[in-house]
Amino acid sequence: MRTAYSVETVRTAERELMARLPEGALMQRAAAGLAAACADVLGRVYGSRVVLLVGSGDNGGDALYAGARLARRGAGVTALLLAPERTHAGGLAALRGAGGNTVTGGDGFLGTAQELIGRADLVVDGIVGIGGKGGLRPDAATLAGFAAGSRAVVVAVDLPSGVEADTGEVLGPAVHADLTVTFGTHKPGLLIDPAREYAGSVRLVDIGLDLPERAELEALQHADVAARLPAPGAESDKYRRGVVGIAAGSARYPGAAVLAVSGALRGGAGAVRYVGPAADAVISRFPETLVSDLGPARAGRVQAWVVGPGAGDDASAVAEVLEAEVPVLVDADGLRLADRATVRGRTAPTLLTPHAGEAAALLGVSRESVEGARLASVRELAARYGATVLLKGSTTLIADPGGGVVRVNPTGTAWLATAGSGDVLSGLAGSLLASGLSASDAGSVGAYLHGLAGRFAADGAPVGAHDVAEAVRDAWRDVMG
Ligand SMILES: NC(=O)C1=CN([C@@H]2O[C@H](COP(=O)(O)OP(=O)(O)OC[C@H]3O[C@@H](n4cnc5c(N)ncnc54)[C@H](OP(=O)(O)O)[C@@H]3O)[C@@H](O)[C@H]2O)[C@@H](O)CC1
Ligand SMILES: [K+]
């Protein structure tokens, strides 16, 4: 499991560790890891041109000590000091002692900075780290702009300066890094868009922090998914493996039903039961589906329901499904039609799977505000509905209603932004629910397989949703290794 911790937790762990270590030891560990990453990026350190962007805190201190290490290996290092009178004193002395140069504020500062950054091979962003709040201040923002326009590789120290560490929000100008070298643990902002996009690839340097059991954010890895996937035993028959009911599609949108069933058939349930007006389309594509033309309440036993994809305005199917005392996944049109009080009153688990636009409608805010604040939005929806919520998008998040750790899916790909892809995911995650996974596991394992399947199916070229469904088996095999 990859985990991310909040700034507050990092600060606490840092204090405890610092109390046991000689002064400055922690910063030296950070700087050593940072310098090693910079050397890897440069390839050849000797003779390279390195520019450090140095703010007023310890983040700048890390950059200065790492710069000193690079200078000792023969790099030409210049530090641009954004707050000369408050620069980390030890770091500054180390850099100067190693032969590095400094440029301080005043007339001509930005002109000189532009020239230096324009000629640099590497820019190290030590403007601000976990102590930062709000977008970058004007001079810092100007330097970030120079870095973005130069051919230099940009390495961010701990976080790209200007992004919110705890939320992944970006409130103004921020540094665009190629690589972020982060210390002790990932921060939520490194895993959640839009901040994630500013981080580039992320390298974690272990500095010995002792972190608590409960993280802020966690991302499943292959082994975590493998441990949760349902496996049929010798005693299994189709009913013991779980039957997933799909109440989806309409005369207008029969395809949504077909795609939800295609996902459900690949999710591990023993059988898929379909209820709705698209039975002919479903059967002709997937003859193994059990179909019923009675409503969900009389369709026969299921261990979990999926309701909503392509449902149009069929509120009665949604209401009937929500009455069932089995886990229910509500997606697409179903989200609009589901009564909030009914969802809150359910005793069996409920999993809501909105994309940003649907989440915005449920919260009564704009789509942009959900996309800009994904973590807060998914938590708010989970709390309001008393349900597990999977917020789809460039970084899919899964939150349980009681607060607690939020899951982030690491396998997403932009190719999944294709019509019907969400229907496949709802069937897949519903099938996992029917197999006995918790709502949070069904959502996060479903999203993981779906993302991986999207990558396999796309392989660098556009895909249709049915290709994604077909590639779920490859993803499953890959995970089981
Ligand atoms: N935790 C650990 O285990 C370890 C932590 N380490 C390192 O320490 C870093 C944290 O250092 P930190 O606490 O000194 O804060 P930091 O991020 O340098 O920023 C504070 C300064 O920035 C300024 N500032 C604020 N917002 C701004 C903005 N938007 N735009 C521009 N400036 C802004 C603010 O100025 P002020 O508001 O006072 O004017 C303040 O002085 C951490 O990220 C990691 O790199 C490692 O060395 C060792 C292990
Ligand atoms: K930084």
UniProtKB/TrEMBL annotation:
<feature type="binding site">
    <location>
        <position position="158"/>
    </location>
    <ligand>
        <name>(6S)-NADPHX</name>
    </ligand>
</feature>
<feature type="binding site">
    <location>
        <position position="310"/>
    </location>
    <ligand>
        <name>(6S)-NADPHX</name>
    </ligand>
</feature>
<keyword id="KW-0456">Lyase</keyword>
<comment type="subunit">
    <text>Homotetramer.</text>
</comment>
<protein>
    <recommendedName>
        <fullName>Bifunctional NAD(P)H-hydrate repair enzyme</fullName>
        <ecNumber>4.2.1.136</ecNumber>
        <ecNumber>5.1.99.6</ecNumber>
    </recommendedName>
</protein>
<dbReference type="InterPro" id="IPR030677">
    <property type="entry name" value="Nnr"/>
</dbReference>
<keyword id="KW-0547">Nucleotide-binding</keyword>
<feature type="binding site">
    <location>
        <position position="355"/>
    </location>
    <ligand>
        <name>(6S)-NADPHX</name>
    </ligand>
</feature>
<feature type="binding site">
    <location>
        <position position="59"/>
    </location>
    <ligand>
        <name>K(+)</name>
    </ligand>
</feature>
<comment type="similarity">
    <text>In the C-terminal section; belongs to the NnrD/CARKD family.</text>
</comment>
<dbReference type="GO" id="GO:0052856">
    <property type="term" value="F:NAD(P)HX epimerase activity"/>
</dbReference>
<comment type="function">
    <text>Bifunctional enzyme that catalyzes the epimerization of the S- and R-forms of NAD(P)HX and the dehydration of the S-form of NAD(P)HX at the expense of ADP, which is converted to AMP. This allows the repair of both epimers of NAD(P)HX, a damaged form of NAD(P)H that is a result of enzymatic or heat-dependent hydration.</text>
</comment>
<feature type="binding site">
    <location>
        <position position="125"/>
    </location>
    <ligand>
        <name>K(+)</name>
    </ligand>
</feature>
<keyword id="KW-0630">Potassium</keyword>
<feature type="domain" description="YjeF N-terminal">
    <location>
        <begin position="10"/>
        <end position="215"/>
    </location>
</feature>
<feature type="domain" description="YjeF C-terminal">
    <location>
        <begin position="221"/>
        <end position="479"/>
    </location>
</feature>
<dbReference type="InterPro" id="IPR000631">
    <property type="entry name" value="CARKD"/>
</dbReference>
<dbReference type="GO" id="GO:0110051">
    <property type="term" value="P:metabolite repair"/>
</dbReference>
<keyword id="KW-0067">ATP-binding</keyword>
<dbReference type="GO" id="GO:0046872">
    <property type="term" value="F:metal ion binding"/>
</dbReference>
<comment type="function">
    <text>Catalyzes the dehydration of the S-form of NAD(P)HX at the expense of ADP, which is converted to AMP. Together with NAD(P)HX epimerase, which catalyzes the epimerization of the S- and R-forms, the enzyme allows the repair of both epimers of NAD(P)HX, a damaged form of NAD(P)H that is a result of enzymatic or heat-dependent hydration.</text>
</comment>
<keyword id="KW-0413">Isomerase</keyword>
<feature type="binding site">
    <location>
        <position position="422"/>
    </location>
    <ligand>
        <name>AMP</name>
    </ligand>
</feature>
<dbReference type="InterPro" id="IPR029056">
    <property type="entry name" value="Ribokinase-like"/>
</dbReference>
<dbReference type="GO" id="GO:0052855">
    <property type="term" value="F:ADP-dependent NAD(P)H-hydrate dehydratase activity"/>
</dbReference>
<feature type="binding site">
    <location>
        <begin position="392"/>
        <end position="396"/>
    </location>
    <ligand>
        <name>AMP</name>
    </ligand>
</feature>
<dbReference type="InterPro" id="IPR036652">
    <property type="entry name" value="YjeF_N_dom_sf"/>
</dbReference>
<feature type="binding site">
    <location>
        <position position="161"/>
    </location>
    <ligand>
        <name>K(+)</name>
    </ligand>
</feature>
<feature type="binding site">
    <location>
        <begin position="58"/>
        <end position="62"/>
    </location>
    <ligand>
        <name>(6S)-NADPHX</name>
    </ligand>
</feature>
<dbReference type="GO" id="GO:0005524">
    <property type="term" value="F:ATP binding"/>
</dbReference>
<feature type="binding site">
    <location>
        <begin position="129"/>
        <end position="135"/>
    </location>
    <ligand>
        <name>(6S)-NADPHX</name>
    </ligand>
</feature>
<keyword id="KW-0511">Multifunctional enzyme</keyword>
<dbReference type="Pfam" id="PF01256">
    <property type="entry name" value="Carb_kinase"/>
</dbReference>
<keyword id="KW-0520">NAD</keyword>
<feature type="binding site">
    <location>
        <position position="256"/>
    </location>
    <ligand>
        <name>(6S)-NADPHX</name>
    </ligand>
</feature>
<keyword id="KW-0479">Metal-binding</keyword>
<dbReference type="InterPro" id="IPR004443">
    <property type="entry name" value="YjeF_N_dom"/>
</dbReference>
<dbReference type="Pfam" id="PF03853">
    <property type="entry name" value="YjeF_N"/>
</dbReference>
<feature type="binding site">
    <location>
        <position position="423"/>
    </location>
    <ligand>
        <name>(6S)-NADPHX</name>
    </ligand>
</feature>
<dbReference type="GO" id="GO:0046496">
    <property type="term" value="P:nicotinamide nucleotide metabolic process"/>
</dbReference>
<keyword id="KW-0521">NADP</keyword>
<comment type="similarity">
    <text>Belongs to the NnrD/CARKD family.</text>
</comment>
